[in-house]
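WP5 quarterly update. Target: VOC family protein. Source organism: Streptomyces beihaiensis. Length: 257 aa.
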Amino acid sequence: MTEAAARRAPGTPCWVSLMVHGMAATQEFYGALFGWDFRPGPQQLGPYVRALLDGKEVAGIGRLPADRHLPIAWTPYLASDDVDATAETVRHCGGTVGVGPLDAAEAGRLAIASDPSGAVFGIWQAAEHLGMALTGVPGTVAWNELVTAETASVAKFYQAVFGYEEEAVVSADFDYLTLHLRGRPVASVHGVGHALPRDRGSHWMTYFAVDDVDDAVERVADLGGHVVRPARDSSHGRVATVADPEGAVFTVVEAGT
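Structure tokens (predicted):
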């Protein structure tokens, strides 16, 4: 269990957010699946709620404007001490800044960007809102992984923007590396080649911790979601990839594995 006590080092995944069309139904789904409660605000980007577990903020859900047909996807936010400077570096290194930088009331300042392979991520400069107050326990974010065609070029982008160190898995048939900050793993990059879903392209995958993966998969189906990849044992422990009723894909992983 990790509780956020202070501002996170730049590049640390610090928040995760989902933009959907039907907020009420989405809150009902995740409330039933993860035990989340919800608190409104900030509303700078339209209707928005923060999900809480045991009174601690763990994620955000906002409403997409009706005329915006963007992919429904969980988006990780990476910490920055200066979001304007980070956004400029993103552009300089071949990425795109799609939203911002802009203020989210007293909470902080944000931008939404995409890397050169098209994967979308957020940048968060904390003010009052430091980000996730709880991680790694059931109902909270456990890990973030970039799923892309190949790791080498896109990892260089994240290194240049956020100063990550890399640790590769040495394997002839497994293109995988971990991104580290100050000697600590914070995210991973998985090159899947032609197995990259054509309808999604490169994307960040959010892993949520659960008590029991098989039970969580059953509940997802009962609540109107569906299974993308059935429960299986992996290097992360037992995992399954699922989607919520609007199609946002995420992975559930057994806590403590």
